[in-house]
């Protein structure tokens, strides 16, 4: 609904046809509208519709960051479900970046101590057979 239609409807409701003051004509509605606007000096401000002036302290408290750590910890500790290690590793791997700097260091394979399968007696036997020593 346009503003002009709304104004005209209000004017019709405001002054019934039998109680008009004798000002009939094309400019009567416009003159009544101008008189009504002049009567309200505070209503002509160029402000945001419905804006309420608040104190700066209220605005600061409203926009201040809130620490949710305590509530989140209580929520997390309330449930005792422990996820499978393989599932957690998979989720972490999916969230990790693909660049080499984002990859965890690769685990080096543990080297087993190099032991011989031959005994001292086997070496002596080899010396005797190969070099001919008794």
Short description:
By secondary structure, this protein is mostly helical. It has 6 helices and no strands.
Helix content: 40-55%
Give the biggest beta sheet: none
Which sequence of SSEs, written as H and E, runs from N to C? Answer: HHHHHH
Look at the helices and sheets and give the structural class: mainly alpha
Give structural notes.
It is a single chain. The chain has six helices and no strands. With 134 residues, it is an all-alpha fold. The longest helix has 12 residues. It is rod-shaped, with a radius of gyration of 46 Å. The model has no long low-confidence stretch (mean pLDDT 78).
Keywords:
mainly alpha; 134 residues; rod-shaped
Please describe the topology of this protein.
Layout: H1 3-14, H2 28-39, H3 56-63, H4 69-78, H5 85-95, H6 120-131
């Amino acid at each position: 609904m346009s503003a002009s239609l709304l104004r005209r409807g209000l004017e019709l409701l405001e002054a019934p046809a039998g109680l008009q003051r004798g000002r009939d004509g094309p400019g009567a509605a416009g003159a009544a509208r101008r008189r009504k606007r002049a009567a309200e000096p505070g209503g002509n401000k160029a402000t945001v519709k419905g804006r309420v002036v608040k104190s700066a302290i209220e605005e600061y408290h409203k926009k201040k960051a809130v620490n949710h750590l305590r509530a989140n910890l209580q929520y997390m500790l309330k449930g005792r479900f422990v996820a499978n290690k393989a599932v957690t590793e998979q989720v972490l791997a999916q969230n990790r970046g693909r660049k080499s700097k984002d990859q965890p260091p690769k685990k080096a394979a543990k080297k087993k101590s190099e032991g011989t399968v031959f005994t001292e007696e086997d070496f002596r036997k080899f010396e005797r057979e190969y070099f001919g020593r008794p």
